[in-house]
Structure prediction request, 659 residues.
Amino acid sequence: MASGYKIIVMVKQVPDTGSKAGLNPDGTIDRARAKRMLNPFDKFALQAALHTKKMYGGSVTAISMGPPPAVEILLEALEHGVDRGFLLSDRRLAASDTLATAYALYKTIQYVGDFDIIFCGLQTTDGDTAQVGPQLAERLNLPQVTYCEDFSVQNGEVHARRIIEGGHQTVIAKPPLLVTIANSYHPLEYKSFRGAWRVQQLQRKQEELAQYIKTVTLDDVGADPERCGLKGSPTIVAKTEKVGELGGSCSIHEGKAVDELVKEVITGCNVKEFLAAGKK
Amino acid sequence: MAEEQEKKQPEKPELKDMSAICPIGEVLVIAEHILGDLQPVTLELLGAGRILADKMGQPLLCLVMGHELGDMPQRLLDHGADRVYVADHPELKNYRTLPYRRVVCDFLESLPSQPHTCLLGSTTTGRDLAPRIAAHFDTGLTADTTELDIGPYEHTSKVDPSKIGLYPNCLYAIRPSFGESLKARILGPWKNPQMATTRPGVMVPLPRESRKGEIINIPVNLQETDHRLTVKEIVREVAKGVNLTEADVIVAGGYGLGTQDGFNMLQELAGCFENSAVGASRKVVDLGWIPYQNQVGQTGKTVRPKLYIACGISGAIQHRVGMSKSSLIIAINKDPDAPIFKFAHHGIVGDCYQIIPEMIKQFKQAQSTSGVKEVVGTH
Ligand SMILES: Cc1cc2nc3c(=O)[nH]c(=O)nc-3n(C[C@H](O)[C@H](O)[C@H](O)COP(=O)(O)OP(=O)(O)OC[C@H]3O[C@@H](n4cnc5c(N)ncnc54)[C@H](O)[C@@H]3O)c2cc1C
Ligand SMILES: Nc1ncnc2c1ncn2[C@@H]1O[C@H](COP(=O)(O)O)[C@@H](O)[C@H]1O
Prediction:
């Protein structure tokens, strides 16, 4: 395969839950203050895509769907060595559930063109469904490897290790295929100075940047608006309810000698029942 | 007709009854097994599915795919299914996406009407398979649910006027909503089957009792394209100690341990108990102190042990949703205002490194003075 692999990586921008700025003390998100970031799981997918290119040759295209600021993560991907990026951005996509998202991304992939391997993150930190990858594979009629922890290409076949309950399995498939990368895969390497510098230069010349990062609409990719957004989504969030305050009757043990505290707790409840019988 | 419509024009128009769109129907559970071991989540789903089916007065179906399944179909009946459909084929011995997807889609298409609800486990298998089925049928799928129910829903959004109406029997798929102290109730009553994956360890299985029901073999028609992926090997990792979701006692550590070495102490504490395991918060998993398999919480495992000892864990909402159903929660934290003290049953304000060694000491003493237990055994 002289020209190498045509690789696609799917990336999404999500609220930054890591920086203290956007988080309340109890870990909930303050959306007003929250920053944005590349979905942490997609970093592993990005690493997988770049690794494949480095080892086996080819080119990497990053695809994202989201509001205009999501261009930021495509720039970030470019800095890491991705060759080009496409952002599908359209108001009619608002409130898309996973099925509508997968449909819109499927049309975008078809618009972008031919591919051998599509890498997705395992899941997003905001959608948190791990559904978009397999749903894309279904639309594209592809075999899939989900929960992939590691892979190599041998004789034109992808050998992948995927997590299963209580172990793992090794599977083999020929491209084209779709792979979702678990967070036990290799972490994303630091961007090279050259990559960062190149993107910095590009940002100075918008018209040149536009050759590398393209923003497209539903009309561009030929997606049916009826199948996108709220209209195209078979699920809706009907109601959210507070997670009920639990207990509220914690007996607090404090301000005594350590052995006293421990004794108090042990006598205060039935922990002893669970002790292993006097084995040494 | 026109007259009638005019009468129905008052300020608050009565919502149209949409029960024809998602009529009540069976509940279908898709069974899961690895190397012949039926996964506990399948029995949990049968327990949950039984409740939903009874609410609608409908049968509970179970589909199991595999090869030479032995008494598995009967076990599925014994745990609550009314009808078990068996797809037996050598190529179905181990789970693979495309062959399994083919069988499920063919099976659903062969039915005179779609089941109302279709449930899978929120496992690496269920989360691999369910989205493909949902996409094939263009139906809704909610991931990783922790509660399920059937109830009415009034849809009034004007985005799509054809959908406005009262849907009397919807699947309520409930899950923690991301990064918020809220639970989201997700609905998709426009089309059956309404699908959900459900977390292992959350639903309660029915006890096994000899029950009657039907076992029906269904045809398997795989196509060449279904074999584009092959399984080379399956490795069961004999996890150190007990599986988190099956443990009676979990000793969990968080960032308050300060270093990775703190987990040695937790191992020792866990070692004092029968059927115990070590858990962790995400922060320390992210730091690489302990593998992801040990993570408890929204993006980790949901557990409901008899005893949960949280050491140096603040009790963030994402951690809490994974362990709050534990029967007894003991928390050790330096900070008297730590959120975990709001929902633990016993809270010790203090330093892990002083409290835990003392606990280990006292537990060991208790063990050596109560040799009786060994004789009595557990039931
Ligand atoms: C989208 C999302 C998903 C998430 N999913 C999960 C999840 O699945 N599971 C999960 O756990 N978290 C999850 N989190 C992270 C969660 O919000 C918290 O950040 C995390 O649980 C905090 O871990 P911690 O309690 O170990 O650390 P901290 O919050 O830093 O708490 C450490 C605690 O230790 C105490 N402490 C310090 N020193 C000592 C000492 N010597 N002795 C005793 N106590 C001490 C401190 O008072 C403090 O309360 C998620 C977050 C987000 C945004
Ligand atoms: N809006 C999006 N744009 C690009 N990729 C996405 C988008 N949403 C989901 N994905 C991909 O699908 C994976 C699973 O997402 P989710 O189903 O939301 O958990 C992510 O890790 C991404 O690789």
Remarks:
- The longest helix of chain A spans residues 40-56.
- Residues A 17, 27, 125; B 178-179, 254-256, 258, 281-284, 295-300, 312-314, 316, 318-319, 322, 332-335, 338, 351-353 surround flavin-adenine dinucleotide (ligand 1) (CB under 6 Å).
- Helices of chain A lie at 40-56, 71-80, 98-112, 132-139, 193-204, 206-212, 218-221, 258-268.
